[in-house]
Amino acid sequence: MVNRGILKAAIPIIIAAASGVVSIALPASAATSAVKYRITQPAMNGTGTIICLDAGFEFSRCQFGKSPDDPPALEKWALVTLPNGTDQIRNFNSCLDLNGFTGPCTAGDANQQWTRVSVGNGRVNVVNVSATGQRTCLDSFWTFKTCMKGDKQQIWRFKQVS
Q1: Which carries the bigger pLDDT value, residue 138 or residue 16?
Q2: CA-based, 20 to 30 A from 38: which of 6, 21, 52, 122?
Q3: What pLDDT was estimated at residue 104?
Q4: Is the pTM of this model over 0.90?
Q5: CA angle, corner 123, sides to 129 and 110, nearest 5?
Q6: Do 152 and 44 meet the contact criterion of CB atoms below 8 Å apart?
């Protein structure tokens, strides 16, 4: 006889594998850690500039250099794992939010629930699946846009900074 707990745990894995979606999960210890990430992508203009997710200006050229605040606090994001397996992407008391880029972090708000879906080579799409079931991606041109496979403005890298 199959243990029901094992069966319940296996069903989401089987469904995800069947649909072809691969999601990157954080280690359990990350749920309560103070690990911060810089969320980046190369600029599309071929200059070698790197764009950062910036809590003050949405996206900006990443700041590099020797300073006490390097990288700047507005470019440091924490991932808070929620009970449903998604993450809130948090900068201090603000969370990445479909309703206006960032908003006050609110438990249970579907507009603040994100997953990272691997696109290979350490890069990910940052995806929100709203209550309507539409997949919306973080996009460096439109801020949020329907996910499009291969759209370079929707491909991000999470680099640990602390």
Answers
A1: 138
A2: 21
A3: 95
A4: no
A5: 15
A6: yes
Is residue 14 situated within a structural domain?
no
Could you tell me if residue 9 is inside a domain? Answer: no
Q: How many distinct structural domains can be found in the chain?
A: 1
Q: Are 89 and 76 in contact (CB under 8 A)?
A: no
- Of 33 and 132, the structure prediction assigns the larger pLDDT to 132
- CATH number assigned to the domain comprising residue 111: 2.80.10.50
CB 50 within 8 A of CB 149: no
**Does residue 11 belong to any structural domain of this protein?**
no
Q: For a pLDDT cut of 70, what percent of the chain falls above it? A: 75
Instruction: Give residue 94's domain range.
Output: 22-160
